[in-house]
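Hi, here's the filled form for the chain we discussed.

Project: internal
Contact: R.S.
Residues: 165
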Amino acid sequence: MDSLCIKSAPVMEPECSEGPSPTSIFHYHSKRAIPTKGPDVLLQCHGITRELHKPYIRKSHTLSGLLQHAVISATACYEDSLPVISLPFSYTNVTQQSLARALGLLYEDQFTVSPEEVVSVLAAASLLLYPELQKECCEVMLRCINVSTVSMYYLASTKVSETLK
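And the returned structure, exactly as it came back:
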């Protein structure tokens, strides 16, 4: 079964020995698709503010719903007021890195998820209600399931299904 588990290309090169920061991960994935126009919305999550663009956040049902109910607030960083949305999360297995990766993948049409990150990226995709990424994560898990991953994958899928109820 391990022979079917294809290793994907590296997610991103670390900038230092400690690995990439969540902000670096997000910018790495989003920089190729960002239009010349500025951001449409600010996302605040765990003390990090990210600039997002409507055409891409529509892939996430959670972000789309938050944007519909966003309150326009003035920020000191911008001349114009932008909607500010907050994304609280208490999902198990969601890390700053996996959330940054999932948000960055909103900006890509084709992507792969490595077996090493699949559990945390699935948790972030479930938080965002990002069906394409959830599907990709499930496909990776099915391709890569083996004796050493079956328990971890089962626990991850159980936690995701419990939080979606």
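Let me know if anything looks off before we file it.
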